[in-house]
Amino acid sequence: MGDQLVRQWSAAAALTILMFILLTVSSYAQDGDSTEVTVNDSLSTADDSAAVIEPEPFILTSTNGHVKRLLFYVSAGVRLPVEAFGDRANTGFGGILALGFAPRSLSLGGEIELMLRLQADRFGSSLDSGPNFTFLSAGMDLKFNIDPTAERNFYLLFGGGVTQTRWSSYDTPYGERARVTTNDFYGSAGTGLTLKGKSVSPFMEARLTDVSGARMGNLYFLTLSVGLRL
Fold first, then answer.
1. Contact in structure between 140 and 174 (CB atoms under 8 Å)
2. ∠ CA(149), CA(152), CA(155), 5° rounding?
3. I need a labelling partner for 8 at 20 to 30 A (CA). Which of 42, 50, 54, 106 fits?
4. How far apart are CA 226 and CA 70, in angstroms?
5. Which tens digits make up the pLDDT trace of 28-68?
6. Phi–psi pair at 202, nearest 5 degrees
7. Per-residue pLDDT for 205 more than 70?
């Protein structure tokens, strides 16, 4: 079961990345033509007027004029273990650092944002004799901003990557069990809400994470976070 889920998450992640690359290449190709027309128009009116354009924070512009936004995220919150994992772990806590890159707006509305994510989560044992759990994760998210210009922007998240699972040492009636570290894959999906601000925007987010653990099978937990987008 665990191997099957890993294959499913890997296939979904590969398809997501492929779609993102195709959309980005298509966007660059279209923007190249429109940029050339804009430059010619600006040259024809250069003698009539001049304007000073002040760049927005965290703006990068490619050689063909396509605008890309870099967004930084920091958040923290509680972690709720569910299903079998909930029988072994207490409510935990964790934090997230992420970098978002939004190269394309959708013709039907909304926006696609690719995110690079680092995450750390920790759970205490709910058993009298059992390990604590720590997850150190790195991966990518595909984020769909439904209305990025609105005062309240709802979004959807789909992501995956690798995680290092650490089982702490603990005492048993038969002696101490040594600490164990495994390298696993994870997949996640969730939703959130961003409140628009001038330079800093608060957001809240909920997501379900599945760690395909080799030692105890799949570990599920719910992430509830609040944070800031810079």
1. no
2. 85
3. 106
4. 20
5. 444 444 444 343 444 444 444 444 444 444 444 443 444 45
6. -75, 155
7. yes
pLDDT in tens, 165-192: 988 866 655 556 667 888 999 999 999 9
pLDDT at 177: 67
Residue whose C-alpha is closest to residue 203's, from 161, 148, 163, 159 = 148
Assess contact for 115 and 73: CB atoms under 8 A.
yes
Question: Coil, strand or helix: which one is 133?
Answer: strand
CA distance 165 to 88: 15
Q: Which residue has the higher pLDDT, 96 or 198?
A: 96
Burial of 54 (0-12, 13-18, 19+ CB in 10 A): exposed
pLDDT above 90 coverage of the chain, percent? 42
Q: What is the 8-class DSSP label of residue 86?
A: G
Q: Residue 133 in contact with residue 169, Cβ under 8 Å?
A: no
Place of tokens 């509830």: 224
Place of tokens 């027309």: 37
Separation between Cα atoms, residue 219 and residue 209, nearest integer Å: 8
> Is the distance from CB of 171 to CB of 133 less than 8 angstroms?
no
Position 50, amino acid: A
